[in-house]
Every structure is written in structure tokens, then in C-alpha cells.
């Protein structure tokens, strides 16, 4: 087991823009430990999705290196489950079939596929809806289905890009608790992007605050609060103190040093 599960080493990324290059990420270095839960916050356009997309192998690497378990990322792989804001479920398949779908590429028997899908469905609390079609589910249930699908493949790393962004505030809080329950039962390394400062603090071991122009890491803030996280913790002075620190780092960022 590698204690550095995900390692970004001097990662920069530019996109062509008219006759120049737009620097989306500049020299990002970050190690995420095995089974750590890291959240990433920062202003719009600071490169959060680009960073995660590169770790997922969905965006071409720029310069620098991204290592998963010490190996450079060379495309998507079953070691990484990716969950986006849009549920990306197949509307014509039931919850169970949606969850099983992700396992079709694995060389496992249909019985094992079914068993693993059922376990993941149980894990996210959707057992009563296993045979329902997505259109009959609420947004929160759809997202739980997407999480179950990612978990069923048994990836060591979960990359989540604003997975709760489209949900109402109450459902969002409920899904945060659900995700933490799932994570505590089957611990994975999680990198989770959010715009919500409370969510970032509530879920994480560490919050990575990014800054824009160029996209870079601005500050990394430890969240020294015990798990399981509870409402009591959410309302505690210590939570408030960390939340204020993250808030300040996101909304009152010092400008970037001018390029030499
Ligand atoms: N394929 C692309 N071509 C050109 N520019 C891009 C491309 N993808 C991203 N960018 C630019 O790179 C920057 C970072 O984008 P990215 O989506 O990673 O930011 P983000 O922090 O996730 O933003 P948001 O919080 O709004 O989702 C943005 O300025 C964006 O316009």
C-alpha cells in the first residue's frame, strides 16, 4: 500500500486560446494519503475540474506528473471511480442494472456481478429501490445510485466533481452523512470538489483551497475534527473556526504575485 495514494507533482496545464496559451493550472503539488478524504474549493475557473479530470485520465496531462499509487496516470482505469454533478445514469435501466453496468467490463461472473451490485446498493441505502427506473427517483436518490455504481467497481480512489451541486440544501446535508457512512464502512481515498464551504469542512480530513489566474493551490487547511461527523460537530465552535478560515481563504484571497 502506498501512503501517497494520489500525488500531483508540479502539475501545470495550458489550453490554447486565440494565438496564445491560457494557463489553467500552474505548478500544483499535492499528496493525498491512502484513505484520506480531501475536499477542493476555490473560485470558479481556478482549475478544480481540470485537476481532477487529469487525475481521472479524462483530460490530457500537461506538464509535471500525476501518480496514483506511484504510477503515472495514463488514461481512465478501474482503480478510479469518477462521479459528476450530472448523475449520468442510463434512464432505461433500473438502479440495479445501472450499478451492474459499471461491472460489465470486469471479468467476473454474472452472479458475482449481481452480488457486488446488491452490496453497493445496500451500502448507499437504496435497497428498496433496486428495481426502480431513474425517472422515478429523486435527485438525491439518483446521486446515491451514481455513488453505488462507482463503489461497486471497488475503486481505491473516488474522484467526485461537485456531486451534490444540483441538490437542495436538506438533501445535500443528508447525502453528506450518507457518503461519510459509506466511506467509514468502506474507506477509499476521496478527492471531492465543491463550491460549498460548509460541505468542504464537514466531509474532509483536509481542505485544499485553490486560487485562479493562474489556477494554483492557495492554502491547505487541516480539519482536526473526529469522525463520525455529527450535527453536534457541525454546530460546534471548532467547526465554525475552521469554516471561517476556509471562507476567508476562498473569498479574501491575496492577489497572485506578478510574473517575474
Ligand atoms: N478544454 C478547454 N479549453 C480551453 N479552456 C479550458 C478548457 N477546460 C477548461 N478551460 C479553462 O481552464 C480554466 C479552469 O477550468 P475548470 O473547469 O478546471 O475550473 P473550475 O475551478 O472547475 O471551475 P468551476 O468552479 O466554475 O467549475 C477555466 O478558465 C476554463 O475556461
UniProtKB/TrEMBL annotation:
User: What Pfam family is a match, any one?
Assistant: ABC_tran
Keyword entries, A-Z: ATP-binding, Nucleotide-binding, Transport
The ABC transporter domain extends over 6-237
A molecular function (GO) held by this record is:
ATP hydrolysis activity
InterPro entries cross-referenced by the UniProt entry = AAA+_ATPase (IPR003593), ABC_transporter-like_ATP-bd (IPR003439), ABC_transporter_ATP-bind (IPR050166), P-loop_NTPase (IPR027417)
Does the keyword Transport belong to this entry?
A: yes
Keyword ATP-binding tagged: yes
Give the superkingdom in one word: Bacteria
Any coiled-coil regions, as ranges: none
Q: What name appears for this protein in its UniProt entry?
A: NitT/TauT family transport system ATP-binding protein
Organism, scientific name: Sphaerisporangium krabiense
Amino acid at each position: 500500500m502506498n501512503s501517497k495514494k494520489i500525488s500531483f507533482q508540479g502539475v501545470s496545464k495550458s489550453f490554447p486560446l486565440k494565438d496564445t496559451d491560457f494557463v489553467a493550472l500552474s505548478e500544483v503539488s499535492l499528496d493525498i494519503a491512502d484513505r484520506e478524504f480531501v475536499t477542493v474549493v476555490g473560485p470558479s475557473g481556478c482549475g478544480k475540474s481540470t485537476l481532477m479530470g487529469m487525475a481521472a485520465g479524462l483530460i490530457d496531462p500537461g506538464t509535471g506528473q500525476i501518480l496514483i499509487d506511484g504510477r503515472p496516470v495514463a488514461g481512465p482505469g478501474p482503480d478510479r471511480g469518477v462521479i459528476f454533478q450530472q448523475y449520468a445514469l442510463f434512464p432505461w435501466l433500473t438502479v440495479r442494472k445501472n450499478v451492474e453496468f459499471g461491472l460489465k467490463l470486469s471479468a467476473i461472473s454474472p452472479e458475482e456481478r449481481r452480488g457486488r451490485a446488491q452490496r453497493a446498493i445496500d451500502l448507499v441505502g437504496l435497497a428498496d429501490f433496486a428495481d426502480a427506473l431513474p425517472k422515478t427517483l429523486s435527485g438525491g436518490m439518483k446521486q446515491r445510485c451514481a455513488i453505488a455504481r462507482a463503489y461497486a467497481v471497488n475503486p481505491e480512489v473516488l474522484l467526485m466533481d461537485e456531486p451534490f451541486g444540483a441538490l437542495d440544501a436538506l438533501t445535500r446535508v443528508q447525502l453528506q452523512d450518507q457518503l461519510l457512512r459509506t466511506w467509514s464502512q468502506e474507506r477509499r481515498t476521496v478527492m471531492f470538489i465543491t463550491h460549498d464551504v460548509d460541505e468542504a469542512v464537514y466531509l474532509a480530513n483536509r481542505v485544499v483551497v485553490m486560487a485562479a489566474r493562474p489556477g494554483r493551490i492557495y492554502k491547505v487547511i487541516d480539519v482536526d475534527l473526529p469522525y463520525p461527523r455529527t450535527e453536534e460537530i457541525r454546530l460546534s465552535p471548532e467547526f465554525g473556526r475552521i469554516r471561517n478560515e476556509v471562507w476567508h481563504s476562498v473569498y479574501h484571497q491575496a492577489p497572485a504575485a506578478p510574473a517575474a
